[in-house]
């Protein structure tokens, strides 16, 4: 009728065809599946490494995590600074705590004896980017800086890793695509408020360690509306950012940040 919408025989956008791995997992009756080839157990090695050395987080930080636990799973761990007592939620299909073959270093910065290792793909979730989550003890309501030391191995044009900040942790598989994101997408560093507001910078070198520094701020606003992003900064934080992104109408309005994740 004249008030109704037009009927389409052909959809405006087709859904992606499921992968063979997704179809096999669904047919098995166990979905979501558990990783068939789990991460190797390294718990004894982790315990020994912590006996030898532990990292002291910098004083005065709002929140921080060194990922130093005598276990291989981050799930339920309650250490760190500035986080809720509830501990981390972590997907064991994607993450584990390990002792790296070499201590991660960048310039004069040196990581601790353990790192969080994450893989980029899962046989049933080729596009999932929801690996770890944790609530903050006190919400962030003012401008703040963050930094993260990362080593990327096996550079893949389809991988996606992003540190995100949100007012809600969401559940497993939840999307955080409309909030501040910083990380790696399609072999390039990027920052964004949503998928239509992305700024890109040159990509990493496979196998090298790099330092990411970001600034999330409120520019003449009651909500966060500006992202500044530096990759391997060589001067102080007043230097020109490699990426600057400003919030537009499609992004979520965030007056305060209660959770973060990867």
Task: Give an account of the 3D structure.
The protein is mainly β and 262 residues long. The chain has a single domain, classed as Sandwich (Jelly Rolls). It has two helices and 15 strands. The strands form four sheets. It has a seven-stranded antiparallel sheet with strand order 1-6-15-8-9-10-11, with no helix packed on it.
Mean pLDDT: 82
What is the count of β-strands?
15
How many distinct domains?
1
Tell me the fraction of residues in β-strands, as a range.
Answer: 25-35%
Major beta sheet, strand line-up: 1-6-15-8-9-10-11
What characterizes the major β-sheet? 7 strands, antiparallel
Q: Ends: how far apart?
A: 48 Å
CATH architecture grouping:
Sandwich
CATH topology: Jelly Rolls
- What is the overall shape? globular
Poorly predicted runs of 5 or more residues? none
Oligomer: single chain
Secondary-structure-based class equals mainly beta
Order of helices and strands: HHEEEEEEEEEEEEEEE
Radius of gyration: 20 Å
Helix content, binned percent: under 10%
CATH C-level: Mainly Beta
